[in-house]
Amino acid sequence: MFSKVLVANRGEIAVRIIRSLRERMKKSGVPVIPGSDDYITNVNDAVEVANKIGYPILLKAAAGGGGKGIRRINDHNQMRQIFSEAQNEARLSFNDDRMYLEKIMENVKHIEVQVFRDNFGNAVFFPERDCSIQRNKQKLIEESPCVLVNEQERKTLGQIAMRAINAINYHNTGTIEFLMDKDHHFYFMEMNTRIQVEHTVTEMVTGIDLVKAQVIVAANEPLPFTQQDIQIHGHAIECRINAENPKQNFMPVTGTINYLYLPVGNLGMRIDTAIYPGSKITPYYDSMIAKVIALGQDRQEAIEKIKRLLNEMVIMGVTTNQNFHLAILNNPKFLAGTASTTFLEDSFLPQWKKELTA
């Protein structure tokens, strides 16, 4: 006998949760990125609110995710040109054309905290993830924990997350996202009310199956672990493998996988994928076709392991960003752990393109 359960908070539920959470954060004194207090559905309101916030800003889809419906806006003329395009993308992607505005903060890290809460009031948080390596507002490399976050900051982030989800009576899992500036001040950005792509690094570094826990909580059972059960065991890194050609401005690639070798089997190495020899990569879905994850005793070991996986993995039939990841993993700024959310596009990519033509 099977019964239907709500596993993830999506659509209108997610929109209401995010809006409520932002209000709660403000009331509890947690710094919130300046932005629109309400959702926006027309360009005139967008211009009016943006003038109050100050440019540059991000125009974002209220029900968004995966970089869809997001645009950087530098002035009111650009807002009038781009608003309808972003809104249409949001409507097509999420069946919801409500937008909101957010002040752009420069030289920051994207730090996020995975949370769980069951129907019995039990709530936990997990070690933070550093998701600062991004291109076109989409994450490429994620890791846990963040090398720049100390133990006291980790505890503080967790306490903020716990107060937030308890205040809104949140159910199941989600991710509370922050921006961290160079002085280690944290600003609440948004909440993703679901399991995210990068949950794998959290699973690897804690040894806890988050997807299994999500289903257990959705079935109205208590959380199968406590806060004391959640410990950091080393360092984990994930690289998203996309069917795209970095040398042609990351153009998505279609085709048929005609040969596949996944070098798995070693401790602390993992590849999540649904592709197989003969599978077709079409233009109808997101270009991500695999996730490569490595766990090490420390960050350096995790980097060496994931480089080995990327060097040994073979995907033939379509072009991927496999070698592009290797270039990032060898970059001094990435190795130092100091890369910000704009590092890839402002610093790394121009130099990488220059070296291609040298």
Structural class: alpha+beta
The radius of gyration computed from the alpha-carbon positions, rounded to a whole number of angstroms, is 20 Å
Q: What are the segments in which pLDDT stays under 50 over at least 5 consecutive residues?
A: 1-5
The ordered string of helix (H) and strand (E) elements is HHEEHEEEEEHEEHHEEEEEEEEHEHHH
Tell how many strands the DSSP assignment holds.
Answer: 18
Integer count of domains: 2
Helix content bin? 25-40%
Q: Could you name the CATH homologous superfamily of the largest domain?
A: ATP-grasp fold, B domain
CA distance, first residue to last residue: 64 Å
Mean residue pLDDT? 90
Number of helices: 10
Annotated CATH topology of the largest domain: D-amino Acid Aminotransferase, Chain A, domain 1
* Overall body shape: globular
Strand share of the residues? 25-35%
Largest sheet: 9 strands, antiparallel
The CATH class of the largest domain turns out to be Alpha Beta
Give me the CATH architecture of the largest domain, please.
Answer: 2-Layer Sandwich
Please tell me about this protein's structure:
This protein is an alpha+beta fold and 358 residues long. The protein folds into two domains: 70 residues, Dna Ligase, domain 1; 249 residues, D-amino Acid Aminotransferase, Chain A, domain 1 (2-Layer Sandwich). The protein is 34% helix and 25% strand. It is built from ten helices and 18 strands. Strands 4, 5, 6, 7, 8, 9, 10, 15 and 17 form a nine-stranded antiparallel β-sheet that branches. It has a three-stranded antiparallel β-sheet with strand order 2-1-3, with helices on one face. A hairpin with a 5-residue loop joins strand 8 and strand 9. 39% of the residues are buried. Keywords: ATP-binding, Biotin, Ligase, Manganese, Nucleotide-binding. This is biotin carboxylase.
